[in-house]
Amino acid sequence: MGEDLSSTLVVREFDLNKDRERVEAVERSCEVGPSGKLSLFTDMLGDPICRVRHSPAFLMLVAEIGGELVGMIRGCIKTVTCGKRLSRNGKHNNTNAKHVPVYTKVAYILGLRVSPNRRRMGIGLKLVRKMETWFRDNGTEYSYMTTEKNNLASVKLFTDKCGYSKFRNPSILVNPVFAHPARVSPKVRIISLSPSEAEVLYRHHFATTEFFPRDVDSVLNNKLNLGTFLAVPNESYKSDIWLGPDLFLSDPPHSWAMVSVWNSKEVFTFELRGASRVSRTLAKTTRVVDRALPWLRLPSMPDLFRPFGFHFMYGLGGEGPEGVKMVKALCGFAHNLAMEKGCRVLATEVSPNEPLRFGIPHWKMLSGEDLWCMKRLGEDYSDGSVGDWTKSQPGMSIFVDPREV
């Protein structure tokens, strides 16, 4: 299984000035895909910790052998909802009983990389264990990671060697941003919410949803958050002006939906490589025809073979018989916002049980399924009213934090 690294491998904290270029070199070497197959390359725009730096607490570690940087890992910590319990006003009062969230401190592992010529030597395992030590030292109860469902090497490392269990399978839904605006139904009214207004609605609707961050106000006030948007049927909304979230919740329309948009374009870009000449020509042809015949509104393929940015939709939720229709209108609005900002892709991630997902347009060839694996870091935690979260059944919805995309 390779040489003994116990005396030569050094794992330490990332140093931006010393390690940035070497980290980028390892990232590039790890993203070289199989010959003849599409590979997705990521450019972090000179900031290797861009995907964790907006979290409440984060750390990046690097691994060295004889001064050669051979691997890295990133991790962050936050407090999220892991379940719910019934709360009553009064010892024997069932009339005012309601569900309230149960919070836990959870850590997220991402960006684990090991140089191709240094694999199968236990470096990845060493990095994970070192990161988990930091998690435990900071009072974290659970650790989880995400990977593509078919990334067998990553799944095997975490489930077979690191003690993680397969936990959730959210769907990644990706849609191209076309050259012409999407149609938004004139029967739907889109309301732009302030961060404080959005927080009220989110805490009311999502408080007991898995992975809902207790510091959602920090997310909504982040400079990368482009806004939160509420969709309501025109005929059911009685006022010509927005009266605020409290009045909205006291008398909501029969159907509504909301979503927030995160500007991932400012964090990193993607690029598809390895496409055949036929695929490139076909994609280019759709754009040429679309420009020549714009009134046909053809679904042309944007140029994904050069670096491109994307917007991420999160906090998707709503209620009512026309909820899917409201979501479709919001996705059209978000598409047009992405078009204005020069993005070529609009993406989101939702639970496979989410009923509102049917309103989200996406291309199957660009979309897929993630695998989330979770581990309880210690047995000395109280089971409380939730029990062991790793053994719980999935709910209808899940909140995907855009800071970790």
From TrEMBL:
Any single GO BP term: auxin-activated signaling pathway
Protein's UniProt keywords contain Transferase: yes
Q: Which CDD domains does the entry mention?
A: NAT_SF (cd04301)
Question: Which keywords does this chain's UniProt record carry?
Answer: Acyltransferase, Transferase
Q: Which InterPro entries match?
A: Acyl_CoA_acyltransferase, GNAT_dom, Plant_NAT
Q: Where are the transmembrane segments?
A: none
**N-acetyltransferase domain sequence ranges:** 9-183
MF terms in GO: acyltransferase activity, transferring groups other than amino-acyl groups
Against Gene3D superfamilies, the record matches this protein to: 3.40.630.30
The entry's family comment says:
Belongs to the acetyltransferase family.
* Protein name per Swiss-Prot or TrEMBL: N-acetyltransferase domain-containing protein
Organism of this sequence = Glycine max (Soybean)
